[in-house]
Amino acid sequence: MVDSNNLKSRKIFSFLLKKECIIAVYILLAIIAGFKQYQHHSYNNYLIFKYVYYHTIDLQNLYNNYPEYGDSNHYGPIFSVFIAPFALLPDGLGMILWNVANVAVLLFGIFSLPISIRKRSIIAWICAHETLTALFSFQFNIALTGLIILSFSYLIKQKEVKSALLIAIGTLIKLYGIVGLAFFFFARNKLKFIIAGLIAFCILFALPIILSSPTFVVQSYADWYNSLVHKNATNASLTSFQDISLMGMARRISGNVELSNTPFLLGGLLLFGLPYLRVSQFKHLAFRLMVLASTLIFTVIFSSGSESPTYIIAFAGVAIWFVIQQKNNWVVGLFIFAFILTSLSPTDIFPRAIKEFIRLYSLKALPCIIIWLTIIFQMLKEDFGSYLTTDK
């Protein structure tokens, strides 16, 4: 009986780790989230995205507040081109397909990683709940996570042009994408990567002209910059739903809303850059994957614009870090802590008072901060030649 139960459990586990099963689950999550939000008329983010296209073709300022939605757009002008196929559809169908497209890019990124299919599948399952959280908000961060991971994978596989193109796309839609440049030192042909990147940026910069005009596009980039400056200034509030970051924690715990981002960013960049001094470790895949994990987490915990759905980016980093680790009590305990506090804290598993306490003090960021510091410590101390030696 025991052997029979174990065999059944192994078969179930094996089925759940199949790529086809994971794809089906993610698509189902995308459809359910999109349909639910459409039914409840809760899709303001999607309306913002949709009208980026319509405001572009009408030559209207992309960053004003409009009566169609209760917020403002913060994505680059190129976004108008990518959202166009969805904006032209009826809202219900458009938002569901938008969600499906986002999870497709994320899964494409995860399954492109140069590790075993088992590890890739585990990463996908670990990210599933954060993905669902982002799907309810129709977040582009899902696809952006996939673009960052893909830019890494292509660079590792010596496909510099594809990597540079994806970094350019991610950056010109949402500035977070520029973190893909952190993988530059892993490029075999660095000159090819640089030239491809410059060409891609120039083409993509001008691409919205097909929907508008050269003057409008240039003005839109200036307007985009101003909107981001204004958004950054308003994020640093003690009660907003954003600033779920290291700086946000410091501001909210201290009660000092005037606390500057600069010292945190300078310290973070210093720590982020120190592992690059270990050039001898660059040849090890595990070290490169740790750079990827560090980059994904860094992007979120050092951004005052981070909100709960943004954490799909950071949690992908947590997942990558976890699957390549030689497991011990600290690693497992830290991962469980992150899954409970970072991923599950916005859900109804937590009582409302506790959820509000976590939100008010930006504590969703805490496990990711600790894991990021752990990653930096490991990258400075350990020899990664022994990692992934049994990866199959």
Distinct helical segment count: 17
DSSP E strands, number: 0
Largest sheet: none
Task: Give the termini separation.
Answer: 30 Å
Unreliable spans:
none
Please tell me what the overall shape is: globular
- Taken as a percent bin, the fraction of beta residues is under 5%
- The helicity comes to 55-70%
Q: In sequence order, what are the helices and strands, one letter per element?
A: HHHHHHHHHHHHHHHHH
Whole-angstrom Rg: 21 Å
Counting helices, strands and paired strands, the structural category is: mainly alpha
Mean pLDDT: 93
Describe the SSE topology.
Blueprint: H1 2-16, H2 19-39, H3 44-57, H4 79-87, H5 91-110, H6 117-135, H7 141-156, H8 160-173, H9 190-206, H10 214-235, H11 246-254, H12 262-273, H13 285-301, H14 311-323, H15 329-343, H16 352-360, H17 366-381
Helix pairs in contact: 2-5, 2-6, 3-4, 4-5, 5-6, 5-7, 6-14, 7-8, 7-14, 8-9, 13-14, 13-17, 14-15, 14-17, 15-17
